[in-house]
Amino acid sequence: MYILAFESSCDETACAVLEMSEDTREIKSNIIASQVDIHALYGGVVPEIASRAHIEAISKITYEALDTAGLAIKNVDAIAVTNGPGLIGALLVAVSFAKSLAYANNIPLIPVDHIRGHVAANYLTHKELKPPFLALVVSGGHTSFFDVKSYTSLEEIASTRDDAAGECFDKIGRVIGLPYPGGHAMDILATKGNKDAIAFPSPALKDSLDFSFSGLKTAVINYINTKRQKGEPLNEADIASSFTKTVVDAIRQKVGEALKATGYKKIVLAGGVSANSHIRAGITEECKKYGAEFYAPELCLCGDNAAMIGAQGYYEMLDGVRGDETLNAYPS
């Protein structure tokens, strides 16, 4: 079965073709039109600009994805599209395009939740992976644990109560003066500093599996601003390393607690921040303590992409999920 998939929840316009079956999970093409250079001028994503850039790119990358896969639209068995969560204007571009394409060619339309798609990226990297398992989604908008009971049954069992880890990495990176997006630059800079140089408050909440990153973010920004106001030199590498260690320690703590609470021996990491080398290393070490298997997507599938949407779309289709001309997008 060939799945044509679309993703436009934020600032990446993406289209992919997957061949999926009970025994096959193959990416035939995975095209991404990035807007990083555009939004770097503003230090973050500008929703209206993102929406307009999606409109300009989506038709072109659809042709490119089909050509790369060696298929015509008549060979496509289903069309999957992210319909939330995300930036509403951005989402509506791919939703509207996918609806029109599906209707015009009489192809089943499959709406896909963006978070489920991130989890499904692991199915493409680890062909042997099957539910049930514990999943941790860490991105710019989410830091949540999910009980993945089946391919289409995911229950959120814990999350951040305010800011997400990815948003904090980007914000601290911007305050330090790193180029946008700050998350990747922070990952590199953190390897050059002393992780024990500065004590920051933990975002791990007591008596639950939840996180709260707003206090940590404020503490780091206050530290930086105080240093600057006093005219004292900043060691950006020590700040990045100490901040990263604080985040990783909190995630490790909650991963251990979640494995113990659920009894699972498999945990999947997903989301844009799953590319962070320090988080990957920390969870790997924590899993060793509990004898648990650790799965993470290959780096090219960590960020927003359409291949992950196609993978999840396949399982949603098998479960009977369908969209029609009334399909809408939802921001949260």
Give the structure's gist in a few sentences.
It is built from 10 helices and 10 strands.
What is this structure's SSE topology?
Elements: E1 2-7, E2 12-20, E3 25-34, H1 36-40, H2 47-69, E4 78-84, H3 88-105, E5 109-113, H4 114-125, E6 133-138, E7 143-150, E8 153-158, H5 165-176, H6 182-190, H7 214-229, H8 236-262, E9 266-270, H9 277-290, E10 293-295, H10 306-318
Parallel strand pairs: 1-4, 4-5, 6-9, 9-10
Antiparallel strand pairs: 1-2, 2-3, 6-7, 7-8
- Radius of gyration from CA coordinates: 20 Å
The count of strands amounts to 10
Total count of helical runs of at least 4 residues: 10
Q: Percent helix among the residues?
A: 40-55%
Q: What shape does the CA trace take? A: globular
Q: Could you describe the 3D structure shown?
A:
The protein has two domains: 2-125 and 302-318, ATPase, nucleotide binding domain (Nucleotidyltransferase, domain 5, 2-Layer Sandwich); 133-299, 2-Layer Sandwich (Nucleotidyltransferase, domain 5). The protein has ten helices and ten strands. It has helices at 36-40, 47-69, 88-105, 114-125, 165-176, 182-190, 214-229, 236-262, 277-290, 306-318, and strands spanning 2-7, 12-20, 25-34, 78-84, 109-113, 133-138, 143-150, 153-158, 266-270, 293-295. The strands form two sheets. A five-stranded mixed β-sheet has the order 3-2-1-4-5, sandwiched between helices. Strands 8-7-6-9-10 form a five-stranded mixed β-sheet, with helices on both faces. The chain is globular, with a radius of gyration of 20 Å.
